[in-house]
Design a protein that fits this description.
Number of helices: 8
Structural class: alpha/beta
CATH class: Alpha Beta
Number of strands: 10
Bound molecules: adenosine-5'-triphosphate
Distance between the termini: 38 Å
CATH superfamily: P-loop containing nucleotide triphosphate hydrolases
Number of domains: 1
Order of helices and strands: EEEHEEHEHHHEHEHEEH
Strand order of the largest sheet: 6-7-8-3-9-10
Shape: globular
CATH topology: Rossmann fold
Largest sheet: 6 strands, mixed
CATH architecture: 3-Layer(aba) Sandwich
C-alpha cells in the first residue's frame, strides 16, 4: 500500500473554478516526490490539504492508511506535531532564542522534555551543517543558514512525512544547492517520505519523481533514472509542453 494515498481531491474556493479537480496520486514510503506546475494550478493547495491545514471540498488523503483529512482539529494537530515535518518559505525563527533552542523548539514546547534533547539537536544540526552556529542568534545568520535551521527544526521530531513548499525560493543558487543536497541526503538516510512543491526545474531535479499538475489535475509524471542532469532536462521538456504561466526562472 502506498504511504500517501491522495484520492479524488477537489478543492473549491467560493464560486471560482476548482483549484484542485478530482486529483489522485499514490506516493510510496521513502519516495522523494516533487510537485510542479505553472502558477496557480493548485500545488500549494494540495500540500496544505495533505498537511491538514486546509480541508478539501471532497476527496480524502490517507497517510499510512489513516484518513488524515477527515480528522477533527485536535487529532489533526497531533498528526502535524508527531508525523509531519513542514518546511515552508515563511519559516519564522524566534529572534530571542539561540539557533540550538530554535531547533529544539518542537520538542520543548510541551512536556515531557526528551532526555536525549541535546543529542538530537546535535544530530540534526550536523545533518544540515549547522554545528558551529548553535549558540548564535537568527539575525547573525544568512538567509540560507536560517532556512537550514528551519529545516533542522522541522525534522527534529523524526517525522515520517516531510512537506516542503518552495523551500529554496528565497535562496541564491549556491545556498539553494547546499540546502537541496542536505535535504536529499537526509531523505535517503532517514527513510522519510518527502513531498516538495516547486516551480524550479533545478530544485525538482533532486527528487526521485516529478508529478506535474495542470488546472488542478494530474498532467504528467517523470521519474529519475539516477542521472541528475538528464532528469533536469526531462523536467524542463515536460514543463515546456505543460504550457501555462510559469515563473521566469523555471525554464532557462
Ligand atoms: N484562500 C484562497 N481563496 C481563494 N482562492 C484561492 C485561495 N488560495 C488559492 N486560491 C486560488 O486557487 C488556485 C490555486 O492556488 P495555489 O496557491 O494552490 O496554486 P499554486 O500552484 O501553488 O500557485 P503558485 O505557484 O503561484 O504558488 C489559484 O487560482 C488561486 O488564486
Amino acid at each position: 500500500m502506498a504511504f500517501v494515498q491522495i484520492r479524488h481531491l477537489t478543492k473549491r474556493y467560493g464560486q471560482h473554478r476548482a483549484a484542485l479537480d478530482d486529483f489522485s496520486l499514490d506516493i510510496a514510503a521513502n519516495e522523494f516526490v516533487g510537485i510542479m506546475g505553472p502558477s496557480g494550478v493548485g500545488k500549494s493547495t494540495l500540500l496544505n490539504i495533505i498537511a491538514t491545514l486546509k480541508k478539501p471540498t471532497s476527496g480524502t488523503v490517507f497517510v499510512a492508511g489513516q484518513p488524515v483529512t477527515k480528522w477533527r482539529d485536535a487529532k489533526a494537530a497531533n498528526f502535524r506535531r508527531t508525523q509531519l515535518g513542514l518546511m515552508i518559505q515563511d519559516f519564522r525563527l524566534l529572534p530571542n532564542l539561540t539557533i540550538g533552542d530554535n531547533i529544539a523548539l518542537p520538542l520543548t514546547l510541551l512536556p515531557p522534555r526528551p532526555k536525549d534533547l541535546a543529542e538530537r539537536v546535535a544530530q540534526v544540526a550536523t545533518q544540515f551543517s549547522l554545528d558551529p552556529l548553535l549558540t548564535r542568534y537568527p539575525h547573525q545568520l544568512s538567509i540560507g543558514q536560517q532556512q537550514r535551521v528551519a529545516a533542522a527544526r522541522a525534522i527534529i521530531t523524526k517525522p515520517s512525512l516531510i512537506l516542503a513548499d518552495e523551500p529554496t525560493a528565497s535562496l541564491d543558487s549556491h545556498a539553494a544547492t547546499t540546502f537541496l543536497q542536505h535535504l536529499a541526503k537526509l531523505h535517503h538516510e532517514a527513510h522519510t517520505t518527502t513531498i516538495l512543491v516547486t516551480h524550479d526545474a533545478f530544485t525538482a531535479s533532486f527528487c526521485d519523481r516529478i508529478v506535474f499538475i495542470k488546472d488542478g489535475r494530474f498532467f504528467a509524471a517523470v521519474t529519475s533514472k539516477g542521472n541528475q542532469q538528464q532528469f533536469f532536462e526531462q523536467i524542463v521538456e515536460t514543463a515546456a509542453i505543460s504550457g501555462g504561466r510559469w515563473r521566469d526562472e523555471t525554464i532557462n
